[in-house]
Amino acid sequence: MLEAEGTSRKLISTRHGHLHVRSNGEGEPPLVLLHMGLSSGRMYRIRRLAVVTVPVFSPEEIPQYKDNYLHEPRPEADGTHLDWYWRWWRDGGFGGAAERSRAWSPDLLHEFMMDHLGAQPDPWMTYHAVFDHPTGEFVSKIRQPFLVVDVHDDLTAQTARA
Questions:
Q1: pLDDT reported for residue 47
Q2: 68-123 pLDDT per residue, tens
Q3: What angle, 0 to 180 degrees and rounded to 10, lies between the N-to-C axes of helices 106-118 and 80-90?
Q4: Neighbouring residues of 161: CB distance < 8 A, sequence distance ≥ 6
Q5: What H or E segment, with its residue span, contains residue 66?
Q6: DSSP E strands, 45-140
Q7: Nearest alpha carbon to residue 158 among 35, 62, 38, 19
Q8: d(Cα 138, Cα 134) in Å, to the nearest integer?
Q9: Sign of torsion, CA 38 62 132 161?
Q10: Among the four residues 7, 57, 70, 71, which has the most C-beta atoms within 10 Å?
Q11: Which residue in 21, 23, 43, 19 sits closest to 31, CA to CA?
């Protein structure tokens, strides 16, 4: 595993599917980092409130994004559907993420793919919740400083709106 020492992982079952939780350390108050991704816990290397992208979608963009985050292969007897998941992560299934993901080690790609598979039966539910959420309206109401990390992927333009 590529986890930091002392990190624990678990899947929590909810009525809407599984929630992937990673925790590390002790103390008060807890720091909660949320992201719509399947493997979001790996993205955070910080000690304060931060978000990776803040997508503010136009009404015209939402159907396109929902369509991109909905199609998965049906399980095949010969297992070829598993290659789809590997290629999706390796080749940057998130659109602009391809350049970054091609540099990932096979071990890291494996962990992302396993997280994706572990989020079944509906790994795209979190993405669709973000697409349906009026992010711009809520971001404008935040009154404390927070860090927005723009990773220059398929949400760079939407993050700039925030």
A1: 47
A2: 777 788 899 999 999 988 888 888 765 555 666 777 889 988 988 888 888 888 78
A3: 120
A4: 56, 136
A5: helix 61-68
A6: 50-52
A7: 62
A8: 7
A9: positive
A10: 57
A11: 23
